[in-house]
Amino acid sequence: MELRLYWKVLLRRWWLVVAPVLVVALYVAATYTSPGPVYQVVMRFAAGTKPAGLSEDYDRYYPWLTSEYVANGLADVAETGVFAQAVASRLAEAGLEVAPAAIQGAIVTDNAQSILVVYLTWPDETQIVAVADAITAELTGNGAAYFPQLEGVEPAVRPLDIPTPVPLPPGLRTQLMGPAIKIGLALAVGVALALLWHYLDPTVREAAELEELGLDILAEIPRK
Predict the structure, then answer these.
(1) What is the pLDDT of residues 97-155, one digit of tens each?
(2) Percent over 70 (pLDDT), the chain
(3) Rg of the chain in Å (alpha carbons)
(4) Which candidate in 71, 93, 138, 186 could, as Cys together with 24 as Cys, close a disulfide (CB 3.0–4.6 Å)?
(5) Is 83 helix (H, G, I), strand (E, B) or coil?
(6) How far is Cα 73 from Cα 69, in angstroms, rounded to an integer?
């Protein structure tokens, strides 16, 4: 079947294509509510170690270089499932049950030289502070669990910011994605119904359909 024939089928039963879209569009318009805001906390941490050589002046370069490695390594650690599980355990001890997967998905990290930056995005303004405090406690108090060379260097990581939730309005993509998916599915259903109706309809509408059956066309009555 050529594409133009599909197009003719859809035009012939356009109402069947439009009907599901119209019903879903009315439903979406009547029930749509704008997504609530999410909250974000940005926390910066200074990472470093003390000089351990014969001369602090001579070895000054190496502690600074090490601090960059520590910040970079902890940035990667903070996005792992092991870290999320440790944070969830701290929250559980405080009486707040949070799934580790939710914590892992809410953390994005970065590092600038010796500064570790943690971005935490959370839907609840009250809980986000508790989660941020648990992240801070894990980074500052349990670094040696991830890097043994930090054993005995306390604190190797120091917080530089007080967790302060900032509301983030939902983006345009978030607001439109739900209705767009519903209307798109309705359009697909409408097209499928139109094609199914054509498949089941025994009516002959085109001369080419008779020729496919082996019948000769002697004459056609033109439309007025």
Answers:
(1) 999 999 999 999 998 878 999 999 998 888 999 999 999 999 988 888 888 877 777 66
(2) 78
(3) 32
(4) 186
(5) helix
(6) 6
3-state secondary structure 139-165: HHHCHHHCCHHHCCCCCCEEECCCCCC
Q: Do strands 38-47 and 115-122 pair parallel, antiparallel, or not at all (unpaired)?
A: antiparallel
- Average of pLDDT values for 22-27? 89
Burial string for 40-53 (b: 16+ CB within 10 Å, else e) reads: bbebbbbbbbebee
Domains in the chain with CATH codes: 3-33+172-212 (no CATH), 38-168 (3.30.70)
Q: What is the pTM of this model?
A: 0.63
